[in-house]
Amino acid sequence: MKNILQNWASVQNRISKATLIDLFLDFDGTIAPIESTPEKAFLPSAVRKILISLHKTGRCRVSVVSGRTLSDVGQMVNIEGLYYAGNHGFEIAGPNLKFKYRLAKEQKESLQELFNGLQKSLRGISGILIEDKKYSLSIHYRLVNSSEAAYIRKAVKELAGSYPSVKLTRGKMVLEVRPKVEWNKGDAVETVRQNFRKKGLPIYVGDDETDEDAFRKLSKGITVRVGRSKASVARYYINGNLQVYVLLERILMILEKCRLAIRAE
């Protein structure tokens, strides 16, 4: 993996030559700093302004792809004209697009039973937060005493393992339980792009393990992992939220410069 800001010349060249940009951004840990609890998260005003400006260029279609519910991520970002994919892509909305993955009855029942079971087995652990997001479950343990983290991971793994229709993945101090189906963030970004008459140069920026599916799907585009990881299939990496802001600012500068050049002609 190469640092995208330190290898900017080739990236800048690709963006400059592109007629359209299909920009996909994860939310928590990418365009928004990770907070102690999900409800404390927010989109920095500077990032919001850049996203609005990118959208207004007319050459950049912006999508936010998150593990949060569709309504949650939509409210967090709240910019009209953008595309939003919630629940790791199980629900998508945007201009002329509305999509919801149809879960089988067994999968719905398994998620509900697992949610109830987790609430019971992890009851009494201070700081634990279990989210029922209809299409998935999130078990946050960032505020839990470090001595209990291993117990939580083991308990969730064992309980989730008793339901063959679900799968367990790990994020940053969070465990995700999703239906065991062939659908992920990679499929979500393709669903969004299929809505376009003309596809643009795909750029995907994310910090989570679930973003790896999108990196694979968009391997011919510009894929950026927030935080260096030897296991990542992303072409580039970037160091933290502040550098994501710098990256978005650079993309905007290129698009604005190209627009001025076209006007001058």
Describe this structure in words.
The chain is α/β, with parallel strands linked by helices and 265 residues long. It folds into 2 domains: 2-101 and 183-264, HAD superfamily/HAD-like (Rossmann fold), CATH 3.40.50; 105-179, Trehalose-6-phosphate phosphatase related protein, domain 2 (Alpha-Beta Plaits, 2-Layer Sandwich), CATH 3.30.70. It has helices spanning 8-17, 45-56, 70-77, 105-121, 146-161, 185-193, 212-217, 240-264; strands spanning 2-3, 21-26, 60-65, 83-86, 91-94, 97-100, 129-132, 137-140, 166-170, 174-179, 201-206, 222-226, 236-238. The strands form 2 sheets. A 9-stranded mixed sheet has the order 1-13-12-11-2-3-4-5-6, with helices on both faces. A 4-stranded antiparallel sheet has the order 7-8-10-9, with helices on one face. α2 runs parallel beside α8 (240-264) and α4 packs antiparallel against α5. The longest helix is centred in the C-terminal third of the chain and has 25 residues, at 240-264.
